[in-house]
TrEMBL record:
Keywords: Decarboxylase, Lyase, NAD. Pfam families: Epimerase. One of its GO terms (cellular component) is cytoplasm. The keyword NAD applies. PANTHER family: UDP-GLUCURONIC ACID DECARBOXYLASE 1, UDP-GLUCURONIC ACID DECARBOXYLASE-RELATED. Its EC number is 4.2.1.46. This is dTDP-glucose 4,6-dehydratase. GO terms for biological process: D-xylose metabolic process. Residues 17-256 form the NAD-dependent epimerase/dehydratase domain. GO terms for molecular function: dTDP-glucose 4,6-dehydratase activity; NAD+ binding; UDP-glucuronate decarboxylase activity. It comes from Inhella inkyongensis. Its cofactor is NAD(+). The lineage of its organism: Bacteria, Pseudomonadati, Pseudomonadota, Betaproteobacteria, Burkholderiales.
Length: 335
């Protein structure tokens, strides 16, 4: 578990819980966690129901599939009352920011407004918005980021399609809570990894893990100095559910594992070491950066998680253990 005291999820048992992006990485992890509760029904709001059924086949009996595209300027019919809505649908990788900026920003902006309206109409008791550390913009890298910190985002830049839409999504949640009384909860994940990430994700930690699992070289296209805090999926799920059950509405919470802070080079060296422990033939290679990738403005992106820790949450899985689990999962799934 990832808590100083175990999180009691029994209050969610028997509920009908809608998760947007349930076929994705974090949404899928949440669906699997909540599907363990007796009588709980998961409503998977997804763009492609057939693909989602395949990805969630292990929990299919507990899942209703609702096909909907959050790029649409329309409000979905949730098929009856819902108890909770968790909005986790997003294109989080910079790989998509340049090629599909509209498809990146719409689910965070228009999609959030649509789901808030649908949740209110369906009598939801809570609404969780999965935001992002990108909302901080360009800030000092010398100190840990608190939820009250903030920096500049160039709204006329292409990469802003993600950060600005996440910012708007948070503001929509605050406004909806104030005006309509819907309890809205805001979670800001930093760098989260684990089973459910795909080889096409495009972020460096996913690229590295898949390379090791496949016995291929780890390709680093930067100087490796950027520093990030890496949080394993199980810890992230428990943190998000902690906010839903114990958090203050309309209040953002950083979600990360600062104890697992590594530079990109340190991460690469760690994964090469894990690969060697697993008997996999991998090595680190340096190459020029590819075209089309929009780099982050942050050199160090590590948060203060005191606000979430005060609710009783504590990350438990370190980088070596977490990435070992992830690599072993990839190997099993591709065997």
């Amino acid at each position: 578990m990832s808590l100083a005291a175990p999180l009691d999820l029994q209050s969610l048992a028997g509920q009908r819980i809608l998760i947007s992006g349930a076929a994705g990485f974090l949404g899928g992890a949440l669906a699997r966690r909540l599907a363990t509760l007796p009588g709980t029904r998961i409503v998977a709001l997804v763009r492609n129901a057939a693909r989602a059924r395949s990805r969630l086949a292990d929990i299919a009996p507990a899942v209703e599939f609702l096909e909907w595209d959050l790029n649409r300027i329309a409000v979905p019919d949730l098929g009856g009352p819902v108890d909770q809505v968790i909005h986790a649908a997003a294109q989080a990788s910079p790989r998509f920011y340049g090629s599909d900026p509209v498809g990146t920003l719409m689910p965070n902006a228009v999609g959030t407004a649509a789901l808030l309206q649908a949740a209110q109409a369906a009598g939801a008791k809570g609404f969780v918005f999965v935001s992002s550390s990108e909302v901080y913009g360009t800030v000092s890298s010398e100190t840990a980021l608190a939820e009250t910190d903030g920096g500049r985002v160039d709204c006329a830049s292409l990469r802003a399609c993600y950060a600005e839409s996440k910012r708007l999504g948070e503001t929509l949640c605050v406004a909806w809570h104030q005006q309509h009384g819907l309890p809205t909860y805001i979670v800001r994940p930093f760098h989260t990894y684990g089973p459910g990430l795909t080889a096409e994700d495009g972020r460096v930690f996913a690229d590295f893990a898949f390379a090791v699992a496949r016995g291929m070289p780890l390709v680093m296209t930067s100087d490796g100095s950027a520093r990030r805090a890496f949080c394993y999926a199980d810890d992230a799920v428990e943190g998000l559910l902690t906010v839903l059950l114990k958090g203050q509405p309309a209040t953002p919470y950083n979600l990360a594992n600062p104890q697992a802070e590594l530079s990109v080079r340190e991460l690469a060296e760690l994964l090469v070491s894990i690969g060697q422990d697993l008997g996999l033939p991998t090595r680190l290679e340096q190459r020029p950066p590819p075209g089309g990738y929009l780099p982050s403005p942050f050199n160090r992106l590590v948060p203060d998680i005191g606000r979430l820790q005060a609710l009783g949450w504590q990350p438990q899985i370190g980088a070596r253990e977490g990435f070992t689990r992830f690599i072993e999962h990839i190997r099993r799934s591709e065997a």
